[in-house]
Amino acid sequence: SGTFTMGSMSLELGRDADEAQREVTLSSHYWMADTEVTRAQWLRIMATEPWPKSERITSLDVPASNMTQGQAREFCVELTKIEREAGRLPQGFGYMLPSEAQFACRASSTSAHCYEPGKEQLADYAVFGQSSFDRVAQRKENKNGLFDMHGNVAEWCVDTVGVGEGRNVVSKLLLNTNPVSVLGALASYRGGSYNSPQQDCR
């Protein structure tokens, strides 16, 4: 919970015109998994393989990939059901995709990424500009203790945007408290992927 500035500074590399900064408030505490969902976790919950069969990757510790936003939502529903039945989930709690306001990637940094320029590099935190992804948690975590928030594979958010409106949710939020954009047909994703350039890993 807390209040923070969402959006990007006017001179930020890779910035689009619809990223004007605005103050938003999250009124409730929440938890986030510290790594991306791995293939091992996905297989255990969903028993499906949405990733390409042709990939020569044998490790199950790499992030699960190639699922739709709808499939990612289904994973959260199934995981919630399993954890509730096992008595490991407090009453009233459940797993869900984060909103863009909850994404927690930059972790209080005022730069385009989760570190301050000149002191560290994106490569310390992210798999990007490469031909394939890596096992989760092989780079440094951000100040929130979250790994791979930049690069490796992009993360689905619960928000949606309209066709032709651009992918940036911040300009489409109707509320400043617990904001979520749900007025469009295109699913929102953040963070960039292993093959993204640096400016897209935001």
Using brief descriptors, characterize the structure shown.
202 residues, little secondary structure, two-stranded antiparallel sheet, 2 helices, 11% strand, globular
Short structural summary:
This protein has 202 residues and is low in regular secondary structure. 12% of the residues lie in helices and 11% in strands. It has helices at residues 39-46, 69-85; strands at 2-6, 22-26, 155-161, 186-190.
Question: How would you describe the overall organization of this protein?
Answer:
The chain has two helices and four strands. It has about 200 residues and is mostly loops. The strands form two sheets. It has a two-stranded antiparallel sheet with strand order 1-2. Strands 3-4 form a two-stranded antiparallel sheet. The model has no long low-confidence stretch (mean pLDDT about 90).
Task: Work out the radius of gyration.
Answer: 17 Å
Helical fraction: 10-25%
Average of the residue pLDDT scores: 88
Instruction: Enumerate how many helices there are, as a single number.
Output: 2
Strand content: 5-15%
Q: Within the largest sheet, what's the order of strands?
A: 1-2
Shape: globular
Spell the H/E element sequence.
EEHHEE
Show unreliable segments. none
Termini, distance in Å? 21 Å
Q: Given the helix and strand composition, which structural class is it?
A: little secondary structure
How many beta-strand elements? 4
| Biggest sheet details | 2 strands, antiparallel
Set out the fold topology:
Elements: E1 2-6, E2 22-26, H1 39-46, H2 69-85, E3 155-161, E4 186-190
Antiparallel strand pairs: 1-2, 3-4
